[in-house]
Amino acid sequence: MNILLVDDSRLARTELRHLLQAFPDVTVVGEARHVAEARTRIQELQPDVLLLDIHMPGETGFELLASLEAAPHVVFTTAYDEYALRAFEVNALDYLLKPIEAHRLAAALDKARTQLRPAVSAEAPPPIPVSEEPAATPLTEHDQVFVKDGEKCWFVRLADIRLFEINGSYTQIHFHEHRPLIPRTLQHLEQRLDPRVFFRVNRQQIINLKWVEGIEPWFSNSLKIRLRGGPEVEVSRQQSVRFRELLSL
Fold first, then answer.
1. pLDDT digits over 15-38, tens only?
2. Regarding beta strands 144-149 and 152-157, do their DSSP bridges make them parallel or antiparallel, or are they unpaired?
3. What whole-number distance in Å separates Cα of residue 121 and Cα of residue 140?
4. Which of 237, 244, 190, 172 is nearest to 215 (CA)?
5. Which SMART domains match (predicted)?
6. CB atoms near residue 125 (< 10 Å)
7. How far apart are CA 203 and CA 125, in angstroms?
8. Any residues with CB less than 8 A from the CB of 8 and at least 6 apart, and which?
9. If DSSP codes are grouped into helix, strand and coil, which group holds residue 231?
10. Is the CATH number of domain 144-247 3.30.70.20?
11. How far is CA 139 from CA 7, 143, 197, 203, 205, in A?
12. d(Cα 14, Cα 81) in Å, to the nearest integer?
């Protein structure tokens, strides 16, 4: 994977180079200090991915993308969190806040690898059937996810989500004072979320274990859990057994 670093800060570019040394399949093919230089370098080097700052002298990272007929895949690297929603509107792979954390960079590179896998040729023999598609890259509690409900949007850290629960044909997410609905099943979410943090308590709900405030015995050897900020959830009898096994010494 060939990467071009676009950032007006020499220190930021040096730090990214240092972090990228941990990934043997990544080559930093060049650097650019501003948008004009980035346009030239993109044309010369044809990178697979841009690690792109937003605020730079002259034009912004968004203006760079708007001016390109065909842009490489983009991971934004910036000190400002207020542009996250706009970043996803231009199909950015990820949005990393400075100082860049190694695990967040690794997750962004995984997304890039997924996008860069060669498509199967129409003349190639059909692949051997498998029971299901490979699971997407697992999300950790440190990841941030884009949530849209009608005209409202959020960019929320998974650690701040205390509860997912079925609401009709949607799943409702509980974080801060918000309760947006998303068109995802709990089964889909359970496959994406870290099982060490997110636990399926029953057919209707998944909780964030780090938001558990209290536990008490309930009917038929089941449990009831109280989450910080509410609500209380009832753990099914089968899942109560799994819960005790998971969290016991």
1. 999 999 999 999 999 999 999 999
2. antiparallel
3. 34
4. 244
5. LytTR, REC
6. 7
7. 40
8. 33, 34, 53, 55, 56, 57
9. coil
10. no
11. 27, 6, 11, 21, 18
12. 22
Give strand pairing partners of 73. Answer: 49
Q: What is the identity of the amino acid at 92?
A: A
Q: Read off φ and ψ for residue 13, nearest 5 degrees.
A: -65, -40
Distance between CA atoms of residues 10 and 186, nearest Å:
44
- C-alpha–C-alpha distance, residues 25 and 230, integer Å: 45
As a whole number of angstroms, the distance between CA 178 and CA 100 comes to: 28
* Residue 245: count of CB within 10 angstroms of its CB: 8
CA distance from start to end of the chain? 43
Concatenated DSSP letters of 130-142: -SSPPPPPPBPTT
Pick the closest to residue 198 from 211, 187, 209 (CA basis): 209
Amino acid at 14: T
Give the domain ranges of the chain.
2-116, 144-247
Q: What is the reported pTM?
A: 0.54
Query: What superfamily would CATH give domain 2-116?
Result: Response regulator (3.40.50.2300)
pLDDT tens per residue, range 217-238: 988 889 999 999 878 999 999 9
